[in-house]
Write a structure and sequence with these properties.
single chain; 363 residues; alpha/beta; Rossmann fold; 8-stranded mixed sheet; 3-stranded mixed sheet; 15 strands; 39% helix
Length: 363
């Protein structure tokens, strides 16, 4: 196993973050290190930007960060890291629906079997360590067919008024696509290990998290992808009519929720929460494009293509449960977060923009 390591020091709690060199993982790691925690990251560095995020973390917080280059599918590499941790934040995953369609077996091995490896390592070697898992709103499936939404003021809205505050954790699970199945399987395993084995687990079903250190592409990180294309004067292709709606959450607010969850795990262990921007941060594709155009002072070059199977015409998280449990709510308005992300992306080399012109909405 290759190792890139600066040994953590200090008396604070040691937190293991799987996938900690990814977008959200590295932001969580940075905040934990800043408050004095020692962080061990398990990451195979396969995703674009992971090595750069690792270097950024080590340069900023080298005394509190260790990066272990390993894979959650490798039990021999994973178990010693779990055994030495005081808490586990599980973010390592295959994150793209398109990739899951191309290779469902690998998608399952990473998301479902990899998560089970993490849980078993905790159960066998460190059962007192809390486990917080990054799940997705894709466990709810498509939710609404086109006939169950109506168009109003540049966006779709659900015809059912009971959804005015978003989709709650009580919504039925309805996995759609291999990605939905693998993440849903992992989601339920994490939940069940609390009930059956008494582990202190928590599931966070996340919506569209965005912000600095997100290397957006057509399969994942759609807001960053929009901005990258627009900053580089490249066309953006939308599948569907652009009235689709998602709720967006700035990364600082997401990190705040994750750390509050870790601090209060004894009170909330065994539960499942939606984590998103909620109704106040819901936005349609067309509205997002308008915001980007206003910010850059020029309209984006937009092209349209047919809908893709399984795309949700509308999804907004109801975040009332997590807001009450953690005394938390989003603090960063969408325009402010968008400007922060655009500033970070604008510092990137111009050849960083992804070559493929297509875009597809992913959680």
């Amino acid at each position: 196993m290759n190792v890139m390591r600066l040994a953590p020091t200090g008396p604070s709690r040691r937190v293991l973050i799987t996938g900690g060199c990814g977008f959200l993982g590295c932001n969580i790691a940075a905040e934990l290190a800043a408050r004095g925690n020692d962080v061990v990251i398990a990451d195979n560095l396969a995703r674009r930007g992971a090595r750069e995020n690792a270097e950024w973390l080590l340069q900023r917080h080298g005394d509190h960060i260790a990066v272990e280059v390993t894979d959650i599918r490798d039990e021999s590499g994973l178990c010693p890291l779990v055994a030495g941790a005081d808490a586990v934040m599980h973010l390592a995953a295959q994150v793209a629906v398109t990739t899951s369609l191309q290779d469902p077996l690998e998608d399952f091995e990473i998301n479902a079997r990899g998560t089970l490896n993490v849980l078993e390592a905790v159960r066998r070697h460190n059962p007192d360590a809390p486990v917080i898992m990054a799940s997705t709103n894709k466990v709810y499936g498509k939710l609404l067919e086109e006939q169950h939404v109506r168009r109003s003021d540049g966006r779709y809205e659900p015809a059912d008024k009971r959804l005015a505050q978003g989709v709650s954790e009580h919504a039925a699970l309805d996995f759609h696509s291999p990605y939905g199945c693998s993440k849903g399987t992992a989601d339920q395993y994490v939940h069940d290990y609390a009930r059956v084995f008494g582990l202190r687990t928590l599931v966070l079903r996340m919506s569209c998290i965005y912000g600095p250190r997100q290397f957006g592409n057509e399969d994942q990180g759609w807001i960053a992808h929009f901005l990258l294309r627009a900053l580089n004067d490249q066309p953006i292709t939308i599948y569907g009519d652009g009235y689709q709606v998602r709720d967006a959450l700035f990364v600082d607010d997401a990190v705040d929720a994750w750390l509050r969850a870790l601090d209060r795990i004894d009170d909330i262990g065994g539960r499942i929460f939606n984590l998103g921007g909620g109704p106040s941060n819901a936005v349609s594709l067309r509205e997002m494009l308008s915001l980007i155009g206003e910010m850059l002072g020029r309209p984006a070059d937009v092209r349209y293509a047919d809908w893709r199977p399984g795309d949700q015409p509308w999804y907004v998280s109801n975040i009332d449960t997590i807001a009450q449990a953690l005394a938390w709510k989003p603090q960063v308005p969408l325009p402010d977060g968008l400007r922060a992300l655009a500033h970070w992306l604008d510092q990137r080399p111009r050849d960083f923009a992804p070559a493929a012109p297509a875009w597809e909405m992913r959680a």
